[in-house]
Write a structure and sequence with these properties.
- The chain contains five helices and no strands.
- The protein folds into two domains: about 20-65, no CATH class; about 70-105.
- Helices cover about 55% and strands about 0% of the residues.
- The relative contact order is 0.08.
- The protein has helices spanning about 10-15, 20-30, 40-50, 70-85, 90-105.
- Helix 2 (about 20-30) runs antiparallel to helix 3 and helix 4 packs antiparallel against helix 5 (about 90-105).
- InterPro entries: Conidiation-specific_6, UPF0654_domain.
- This is Conidiation-specific protein 6.
- It holds the Pfam family Con-6.
Length: about 110
């Protein structure tokens, strides 16, 4: 194999061409992430404004729930998964059954 057959390295300028949607999605995620600093959130808001995409928290996919509030459907699915998982102890399965019963999810 001669050197002509070896693929050349892609220049850095060509390697990363962030698609607009992905860039916007990343900034929106940063704003929504509670572990991101206020300064970083402000930078992301400014970037979104530069793209004419102001961020509206009320339209975020998870914006309808208060922080710390869990989706009962997801909780029930997780409990059902625990009950059917062979790697979960019988004690843990029983606790999951009890919680599921309290949710009204049945088995």
């Amino acid at each position: 194999m001669d050197e002509g057959d070896i693929p050349q390295e892609v220049p850095a300028s060509e390697d990363y061409r962030g698609e607009r949607e992905n860039i916007l999605r990343g900034h929106k995620a940063a704003i929504s992430n509670p572990q991101v600093s206020k300064e970083a959130k402000e930078r992301s808001k400014k970037e979104l404004e530069a793209y004419d995409e102001p961020y509206d928290a009320s339209q975020a996919s998870h914006g309808g729930k208060e922080e710390g509030q869990k989706d009962p459907g997801n909780v029930a699915r997780g409990l059902k998964a625990s009950i059917s998982n062979p790697g979960v102890s019988e004690e843990a399965k029983q606790k999951a059954r009890d919680k599921l019963g309290k949710l009204g999810g049945g088995e």
